[in-house]
Amino acid sequence: MAKIKIAQYWGAGCGGCDVALLDIDEKILGVAEIADIVFWPIAVDTKLKDVEAMPDGYITATLYNGAIRNSENEYVAKLLRKKSVLMVSFGSCACFGGIPGLANVTNGKDILEYVYGKTFSSDQRDKPDKVYPQHMTHTKDGELELPVLYDTVMTLDQVIDVDYYMPGCPPTTNLINDFLGVVEKHVKEGVPLPPKGTVIASNKTLCDECKRKKTLKVVGELHQAMDVDMDPDKCMIEQGVICLGPATRAGCGAKCLNANQPCRGCMGPTAEVMDQGGSMLSALASVFKVDNTETRLNEDDIIKLMQQVKDPLGTFYAYSLPKSIIKRAVKEKKARKQEAKT
């Protein structure tokens, strides 16, 4: 039996997805039995030039984790798409933008100005002139190139065509094992692969997977998880703690909830939901009580509700801002023209 070829790449992300692939323990032996790893920068000494030299379609499947944050992320994503038969959006950052996607509230120029112009560092102690990274720098040894930082953080499928999605921060071992099992059966037994676009997770919401008791009671006040002595058996929302379970896809095993921590939404929205944050706000409004007689929220009531949320963007869009209807913060043209004049 000829072995398949697998690649793994780390885009804009924390690296936890790479570690998660190693956490499958003895299952990795099954991978080694059916596959050769031809590109994995943290584990295999294959250079980018080696990938560029591969024939198109040479790689059977690539697991791409991380968002598209700069020109190098985009170039490698497009290169691996060209060289791969199957492309898997691996982890929350690749699927929805993830935590890096929160950078969409600003732009590349402002980020560089803050980091290199406003933030003090020890190497600037004797350097009154601010030094900013340049895309190209000429040295006596040749030209040095740095990736271009984009204004907008993008999901993988906003840049290339994607075959499968495996959400999670990082994907849990059971999801990874499920996918690898499908690939193994396809290679050994000819079992068909899932339809293109399949999400390797449950189609239900996390609330369907959660074992906490729900009584459909309304809540009148919101709390931070750290400020509440939470009952481990009771629904967190009914205890006034925002949990994104109603707007989040199941499949992770409710690990955070089992540790008495609220869901933050890393598995992303279900197939029926266009905007995870909007869906969660709707679910929260349905149980939020304004006073003893009124449970239907008007615009003023919604404002009162939102004022109790310490960080609305980070709460409702911690993992999914680039994939949401909002996608990013924008400036009005008039404001931009005025900014340019000043």
Q: What is the radius of gyration computed over CA atoms, rounded to a whole number of angstroms? A: 23 Å
The level of helicity is: 25-40%
Q: Kindly state the mean pLDDT as a whole number? A: 88
Provide the CATH top-level class of the largest domain.
Answer: Alpha Beta
Main-sheet strand order equals 2-1-3-5-9
Computed structural class: alpha/beta
Multimer state: single chain
- Classified in CATH, the superfamily of the largest domain is NADH:ubiquinone oxidoreductase-like, 20kDa subunit
Shape: globular
Major beta-sheet overview: 5 strands, parallel
How many distinct beta strands? 9
List low-pLDDT spans: none
Share in β-strands: 5-15%
Question: How would you spell out the order of helices and strands?
Answer: EHHEHEEHEHHEEEEHHHHHHH
Kindly, what is the distance between the CA atoms of the first and last residues, rounded to a whole number of angstroms?
67 Å
What is the CATH architecture assignment of the largest domain?
3-Layer(aba) Sandwich
CATH topology of the largest domain: Rossmann fold
How many domains make up the coordinates?
3
Counted by DSSP, the helix tally is: 13
